[in-house]
Every structure is written in structure tokens, then in C-alpha cells.
Amino acid sequence: MNSFYNGNLKINVQADFVGPPLASCHSFLATADAARRPFLRIFLENGIAQARALHKKIFFPPRFGLRRLDAAFSPTESFQQQINVVISGLVFLALLQNLPAGETSQAVVRPAFGEDCETMVIKEASLAKKEILVAIFSLTRRNINAALVKAVKRGVQVIVKYDARQGELESMDDAITYLKKQGVHCHAVTMSDEHAAMHHKFMVIDRKRVLTGSYNYTVPATIMNYENLVVIESPETAEAFAKEFERIKDR
Predict the structure, then answer these.
(1) pTM: predicted TM-score of the whole model, two decimal places
(2) pLDDT at 191 (0 to 100)
(3) Could you say which of 89, 97, 131, 139 is the most buried, measured as most Cβ atoms within 10 Å of its Cβ?
């Protein structure tokens, strides 16, 4: 568990990379070759500078601070160490810039990649006690839909908002029909511009945890693509995503 401090703000980032990195991690960092690393480094430095401007007295442990950036993007650093730095840094900045200065919050963040994304979604859905809010571009993966139905049968309210154009596809239409019959509240979101989409991919559980990332709940995303997903355990962050969920309407 790695901690970042900003006065009374504490964010814990949990990244478990024991053993060889997953194939998806390896591929992700393989793209960050010598030519791309400087741009990633500049991105992180700019983000940290902006965070410092908004939040005074930020302490960065040496392992993840500016002194770490040179090593983090050097060709000699292991893939595991680079993954830790990139994920921890980006998640930290994203959380930090969404909190007013001086507000106290704590979050635990756990990442998943490739097929582990599905495992994470199913596990977290199984832990829901009251409510699951799903904003998703496409959801045709039967295992995940079954997990949502199981939640409904436990008395959990499950609400899904999805892209209307995706809903016109046969596989998606079949999935939505199944979910509705099982008590899942499904709402198609129509975008008037033909190039626009309801492209969110997140799940809010009990207003306490958020799952978000590139991962769509589909077969290709699960077994073919390079995908990522993080669980953020933070009521403040979950509430922010819940408000965004409520804001999603036809337009």
C-alpha cells in the first residue's frame, strides 16, 4: 500500500504486482519505448505541478515523487516498477484534482487487466448490498449480465444506462431483453449527433465503490483486447460518479 499526503488528505493506492506482469501490462509498457517515455514523463510532471498549485504542501514519497520520474522511465527499470509508478501517479492526480483543497478523503485503488477485468466486475457486483449503477457503452458478456441478475435476486436495485445505437445490435438487444425480464432497469441513451456516443464505462456500487476504465462488458473486451479497469474504494469518488450517472440523458 502506497500513501500520498496533502495536508489532511490521504490517498492510499494499492497495486499488487507480485510475480511476472500480466501480458496486457507488458504490452502497455512496451509501447512506452525510448521515444515515448519523455512525453509520459512530461505529462506526469505537468500534472504534479498543477496539483501542487491547487493543493499546498503536497508530500510525495521519494519512490513516487519527481525524483522517481527519471528512474521510472529509464530503460533499465523493470516493467513492474514502471507499472506501479504510472498507475499510482495517474490515479493519484485524477483523485486529487477532483477534490476541493482541504477536503479530507481516503481511497483504495486496485487495478486489473485483460480477463481479470471480468473477474473484478463479477466479484464487486457480488458484494453489492443496495444499489448498482452501470453506465456502459456495450454489455453483451453473459457472465457479467448473470452477475447483475444475481444481485437483483438478492434485493439489490440495478440500473443500467447504455448507448442506444449499440442496443440496436442483435447481441446487445438480446442481452438487454434478458436483463429487463430479470428485473434490471435498463435505459437506452440516444445521442442526436451520429458521431456521438454514450461512451462511459463505469459501475457504482452502494455509493461506496467505483469500477472504471477502458473495459466494456463484452466478449472481445474480455478475451481479445488489451483492457484496463480500476476499483476505487471512496464514498466521495463514488458519489461524484453517481451524480454523473444521474446526469446522463438523451441529447
Answers:
(1) 0.62
(2) 93
(3) 139
